[in-house]
What we know:
This protein is mainly alpha-helical. The chain has one domain. Helix 3 crosses helix 4. The protein starts with a helix and ends with a helix. About 4% of the residues have low confidence.
Amino acid sequence: MTFETWLAFAIASLIAVKIPGPVVVFNFGRSLGGGWRAAMPIVTGVALGAIVALTASLAGLGALLAASAAAFTVAKWLGAAYLVWLGVKLWRAEVGNAVGLGALSAVTYALLAGRVSEAVSRPSIRQGLNRVGGAMLMGAGIATATMRRE
């Protein structure tokens, strides 16, 4: 790989990591409800999930899924169902009782949300954040289920 290709990849990766996704939206909403301490279990879960994904990748799971259409389809449907389930749970969650779900990005947004929580203390706004995060997770699950392997 040339240096220019690596640099383009590194810059694109850094940009992608900083774009808030469903976990960040969820973490932000949880932080608004309970401060930064309430978000730390989520940050821990994100970091542990990244470790599991990295370990599976290093163990060759990616190569197995690339080589086996059946394994890929099973993993895709299981992942899609899980995302939809998480989205529905978050959508239905009561304000302040949300179900626990880029560790550095999660910490950054958790600290930011802890500071903003006093300004945004209305339950309707927190419920809106739960709904946005739930809709994003459900959308990710549906998109995963309908994605075609090429």
